[in-house]
Write a structure and sequence with these properties.
Keywords: Signal. It comes from Nitrosomonas oligotropha. This is Beta-barrel assembly machine subunit BamE. This protein has one domain. Helices cover 42% and strands 26% of the residues. The protein has five helices and four strands; from the N terminus they run αααββααββ. The N and C termini lie far apart (49 Å).
Length: 129
């Protein structure tokens, strides 16, 4: 009875790293950031641009996003955190939570220029952390 209660308390009290791993940002398909891709494809993958303007008759847009992790990677990390929490009786959270804070994806920004048909004809990396 005592062990069951202790296990339930540990599983409910711990789990920050498990939850954080499962809620990490999704992996974006950065291979779409190339010449020949349509504007609609970029918006469907990265969301609305943060800036959209015309210069010299050409449309320029800036896309900002956090490059995350695949579903499998997120599930694997969450499982490992959960298992480590059980094995260490919750002490893993001292390592797991800061780890998930540190590995929370990379902030990225790209400037895109389109032709008259809204097809990408130039990409410039602005930021990658």
């Amino acid at each position: 009875m005592f062990l069951t209660t202790l296990l339930i308390l540990l599983l409910s009290a711990s789990g920050c790293s498990v939850f954080m791993a499962a809620k990490q940002p999704e992996k974006k398909d950065v291979d779409l950031l190339k010449e020949g891709t349509s504007r609609a494809m970029l918006i469907s993958e990265f969301g609305a641009p943060v800036i959209s303007e015309y210069r010299d008759g050409k449309r320029y847009e800036i896309f900002k996003f956090t490059q995350g992790y695949s579903t499998g990677a997120k599930a694997g990390r969450a499982f490992l955190h959960g298992a480590a929490n059980v094995v260490t009786l919750g002490l893993w959270e001292l390592v797991g939570t800061p780890t998930e804070i540190t590995f929370s994806g990379d902030d990225m920004a790209f400037q895109v220029r389109y032709d008259e048909n809204d097809i990408v004809n130039e990409i410039a990396l602005i930021k990658k952390e």
